Amino acid sequence: MAQNENILANVLEIFRHNPKKQYQVEQIDRMLRRDRLGSFSDMVKALSYLEQKKKIITDGNGHYQLAEENTEVEGDFKANSKGFGFVKLDDEEADDIFIARDYTAYAVDGDRVKVKITAGGNPWNGKGPEGQIIEILERGTKTLVGEFHPLTDAQVKISHFIGYVLSANKKLANYRVYVKQDSLHPQKSDIVKVSISSYPDKDNPDSMTGVVTNIIGNKNLPGVDIMAIVSEHDVRTEWSEDALTQSNAIPDRVTEAEMADREDIRDQPAVTIDGDDSKDFDDAVVLWKLPNGNFHLGVHIADVAHYVQENSPLDKEAFTRGNSTYLVDRVIPMLPFRLSNGICSLNEGQDRLVLSCEMEISPAGERVNYRIHPSVMRSHGRMTYNNVNKVLDPENHEQLEGKYVKLAPMLQEMAELHNVLYQKRHQRGAIDFEEPEAKIIVDDQGKPTDIVLHDRGIAEKMIESFMLLANETVAEDFYRKHVPFLYRVHETPDGERIKSFFEFCSAFGLHITADPNHVKPIDLQKVVAKTTDTPEEAVVQMMMLRSLKQAHYSEEPLGHFGLAAKYYTHFTSPIRRYSDLMVHRMIHAYSEKGTNQKVQDHFANYLPEVADQTSTQERVSVDTEREVNDLKMTEFMADKVGDHFDAVVSSVTSFGMFIQLPNTVEGLIHISNLTDDFYSYNEKSMTLTGRGTHKQYHVGMPLKVTLTNANVEQHQLDFEIYDPNAPKKRHNSGGFKNERRGNRGFRNDHAHKGHYRNNFQKNGNHPHLSRYKH
């Protein structure tokens, strides 16, 4: 008996050592024989017993894996509007745990919970693990934004509540949040923010109580819809009195005393190059050829750290916000406008304090020398991407302002250097994506009037190249000084995800020989190159992004996979990103105070907190921007119900297909609307296949679709496949929200200057592409 128990324990230990691995009988036998732990028949008996006791699971063909029953784990609860939900574990590779309606313990979406796994997942039948919540560890929803509905006077007397709030968030829409009498008193149809006081329980499973802390405005007023989203994501919009006092005390001109110890580069023809509607300019560039044939490139960045001192009221505000948030009709800045658009902005013709990264670059793109130092500069031109692209276009004959004509030779040399730097990055394996950027145009009432696609030109790419090089130069310099520093990192992707991506690519005839467990950036760059200008280009890039990890900030120099860079930081946008402000602060400190242990310890102690806060707030801004874009895109499509559109399948799930229109608008074709057959889902190939017709829908497939519903409140667009022969029918007002979210990966590091372009994310995981920046 003891020997049998030993065999059972030894076999079980093999599975527990690697709980995600699937073992064949022969593998288990070899491992036992190697350690002289039993015979083949003993092993078979042990496997049979463990399977019977549901300790392990099998596909029936000799493959076994550890079951997860009765394991207790922690994770975040993701609710479904129908009452059930899933718990997402911290391990990104672990399967989500299904929680049936009766086993949620009244958890609310976002709660941190402890789960007992009651049924292990089976990879061979596609069934995931199941469980029940046994403890709510921390509430994830502490505030809620929604529409106020007043109670009658009689109801107020009985209940002692003045009304209730209903959230537009589908995952919270089943709850009424009753408002206490000692809160603010909103009017009917006001959008309000509520601080939650009590949560659902067995006596009140569908309600909560709370206090109104902010009345955003009547839901029908312009701009209230956007500010409701801003409030829901806790994006800070008000300034503390201390911060405004400090801001107002800062001179609006650079003083002689401030310039005293700085290098004066005001005679250099440095220029800013930004979008037509940009108002804050935190980077300027200048270039000339040296007598030895090399390029001199100066990247001069607004010295925000000079004005925003550590632990000052302005610094605390900037740290809390983490970055500016760019919405379709407004910017919620990290710094007051007096700084961001004033003394910190490199406005044309104005003296400004900057940190300069001056680099000497060979014609082959090698950086042979550099200096990082404080300067005072004066912009010789506020230039726009559109006009610089015209200067660089030999076919353009439009007459431009004199400053463009005067500086055209320098701009031409900048384009020359950009081409050299691009080829250098390409050779080392940097992954480059090219796709149109969507901009939502709104009128003065906030109503969307158009969605315009914009392709990046040479000017945009040129500035991107210069910012990338400056960021790499600064990161490498301080890495080699062996001092604490803040890095922008993008870690090597997980082998299993890359393996799945390679398998997906094989369906398009792309045979990739790279080892997924040791993938290099250049391996993925080759995949991008193979699909350039093909129908598969967009979908392959999208699936690649989903397989990558999310870029973030770290005090550890973990490298940047997507850019194929050993050292990378964010130095170039301190007006709109706290990470860059922090980098500037460290540059000043190490230069002025030295790199002694006291200075190093000071930064080492709080860099982890800065890295965590800036990474978190970046995701908050991205989510806010994305949700506003979803709202305005849905609103733009609202009067187009019944219209037909060309579309491409952007994702396939078990419940239907997400499709994307040429203007980047996305929506869902629910599987219930595929009425010509019964369709089954293949997760590995991401396809839906008809059992009778064998018709197959796959990612990247072009379709003709009809818009059947546009639910602006829920940001939902529903489509069906267009059939010109089908009888007309009334379209319902139901809807399926776009829950598809993919991997933003390193996209925030592959576009210019901190805006977040309109597109993909996992680990926050995937929308349509919006604004990104290094």
UniProtKB/TrEMBL annotation:
<dbReference type="InterPro" id="IPR013223">
    <property type="entry name" value="RNase_B_OB_dom"/>
</dbReference>
<comment type="similarity">
    <text>Belongs to the RNR ribonuclease family. RNase R subfamily.</text>
</comment>
<dbReference type="InterPro" id="IPR004476">
    <property type="entry name" value="RNase_II/RNase_R"/>
</dbReference>
<dbReference type="InterPro" id="IPR022966">
    <property type="entry name" value="RNase_II/R_CS"/>
</dbReference>
<protein>
    <recommendedName>
        <fullName>Ribonuclease R</fullName>
        <ecNumber>3.1.13.1</ecNumber>
    </recommendedName>
</protein>
<dbReference type="GO" id="GO:0008859">
    <property type="term" value="F:exoribonuclease II activity"/>
</dbReference>
<dbReference type="InterPro" id="IPR040476">
    <property type="entry name" value="CSD2"/>
</dbReference>
<dbReference type="Pfam" id="PF00575">
    <property type="entry name" value="S1"/>
</dbReference>
<dbReference type="GO" id="GO:0005829">
    <property type="term" value="C:cytosol"/>
</dbReference>
<dbReference type="InterPro" id="IPR011805">
    <property type="entry name" value="RNase_R"/>
</dbReference>
<dbReference type="InterPro" id="IPR050180">
    <property type="entry name" value="RNR_Ribonuclease"/>
</dbReference>
<dbReference type="Pfam" id="PF17876">
    <property type="entry name" value="CSD2"/>
</dbReference>
<dbReference type="GO" id="GO:0006402">
    <property type="term" value="P:mRNA catabolic process"/>
</dbReference>
<dbReference type="GO" id="GO:0003723">
    <property type="term" value="F:RNA binding"/>
</dbReference>
<keyword id="KW-0540">Nuclease</keyword>
<comment type="function">
    <text>3'-5' exoribonuclease that releases 5'-nucleoside monophosphates and is involved in maturation of structured RNAs.</text>
</comment>
<dbReference type="Pfam" id="PF00773">
    <property type="entry name" value="RNB"/>
</dbReference>
<feature type="compositionally biased region" description="Basic and acidic residues">
    <location>
        <begin position="737"/>
        <end position="751"/>
    </location>
</feature>
<dbReference type="InterPro" id="IPR003029">
    <property type="entry name" value="S1_domain"/>
</dbReference>
<dbReference type="Pfam" id="PF08206">
    <property type="entry name" value="OB_RNB"/>
</dbReference>
<dbReference type="InterPro" id="IPR001900">
    <property type="entry name" value="RNase_II/R"/>
</dbReference>
<dbReference type="InterPro" id="IPR012340">
    <property type="entry name" value="NA-bd_OB-fold"/>
</dbReference>
<feature type="region of interest" description="Disordered">
    <location>
        <begin position="721"/>
        <end position="774"/>
    </location>
</feature>
<keyword id="KW-0694">RNA-binding</keyword>
<keyword id="KW-0378">Hydrolase</keyword>
<feature type="domain" description="S1 motif">
    <location>
        <begin position="642"/>
        <end position="722"/>
    </location>
</feature>
<keyword id="KW-0269">Exonuclease</keyword>
<keyword id="KW-0963">Cytoplasm</keyword>
